[in-house]
Design brief:
The complex is a heterodimer of chains A (about 250) and B (about 230). With about 250 residues, chain A is mostly helical. Helix content of chain A is about 70%, strand content about 5%. Helices cover about 30% and strands about 30% of the residues of chain B. Classes of the chains: A mainly alpha (about 250), B alpha/beta (about 230).
Amino acid sequence: MYLAEVKAWDIVKKQYRYKLKSYFGVFTSLIVIQLLAILFSFNGTGSGSGSSNSIQYDFYYYTSDIILIFMMIWAFITAIIITTRAYRYDDFSFVTNRTISQVSNILFLLSASIFAGITVYLSTHLFQILAFYFKDNYSIIVDSLSFTEFVMGMITSILYIFLFACAGYLVGILIQLHKGFLLIIPTILFGGLILDGVGGDPELFVNITRFFGEETSFILFICKIALVSSILLLASLGISNRMEVRK
Amino acid sequence: MINVALLFVIFVIVASGIGIMKSTNKVSLGTRKIRWILGGYTIILAIATVISLSVLPNYKNDQKVATAAEMTKIEDAQTKAIDNLYSGNLVDLDKAFSEKKKWSFPFEEKSLDIVLTEGETGIMSVFAERKSENDGEIEATYHVGKSYIDGVDFTNELDPPELLLNGQQLTVNNPTLVTVSFSRFSPGFAFSQFSKGEHFSQEIRSSVIGRDFILLKVPNDIEINGNISWINE
């Protein structure tokens, strides 16, 4: 029996609000990376050409693909950054434990992913309007979205970004557990990709991409992301609970 | 070149991230300044979205975009109809081809010389069939199959050939080469993954250029000289 009884969820909420203010700086990098992505998308995110007896054609695609991929990388790195010592020690300003700290971090990452997902859609309009006015467009075709497509697309973008954030979070926690992972993880990641591609028929990366990218059922896609994200986050929780309080 | 630049940027992003990770201090411009930057950026994005949503829909693509499977089906139907044409079967012709242009020439000569001029688009295929009567008229129809570029129907953009009758000589000038260039504004794979059956690897669809030919209907008793294919003869 204490004079002031503290509920875990209240602390999570307080920490989450604090982190939204304290980690605000990560959004400046979001803007910089999004502007870079717009710059790279400006020449078209895809193109094709061909000819036959009666027609010669070339076409250019202007899509949000590069912006979304850059945002995934941003989420991955941001998640690693918030596991670093400088950010982690802020949690000790509160009465807290590892789990509360992790939950508030996850909530922050989810919020950041939602913001990034929304700005992916908005920044696509920015670069498309720039491409519309500043590029020589012989003929223009605009693929419109229905409301359902818009909502599903927005959720999909957010989930892709969140998935990368979860992966980054696990990587960050592993690095905090032992600095050796700073070397081991890139070695396994890039070494695996190189070994996979040595035979000329890469399967690992392609299969991972297909697992999410070729899913045509929206519900199943959500389940897949939820399952993989949960595994990554539970692993992070499990590992971080084994760490010392101030390591 | 752009791929190298892209890799360089990704490298710089990752390197900066690692740099921050190794640092014991948080990188911050100050909350107030960041709020202004973020707020300003969001307002710019919102304005751009409003402009984009009010300007770009004027160029909206209302026609259905054909899938790779649909285009393959159309291409197969055209090939089958042409094969049938060689064996004198005109039944499925209307399903696979449309009549883009028709000509009618009064003709009282005994023989017709057909000259196919080779243009930048090659030589036109010409099929001929005899009418049951001698009505003193040559009828020509230009048939064209559907052409899709990246799933978009461009059949109407194609020009018909030119047919000139001079005495007993019919000259077929091939259509001029049409150049089509277009920019396509799409939302991206995340927005089309479930709605149109497009996946990571299928964003760019294939193209089908429709086959074309001229079908001549000639009076029963005239003789034809030239590089043509007879139907049922």
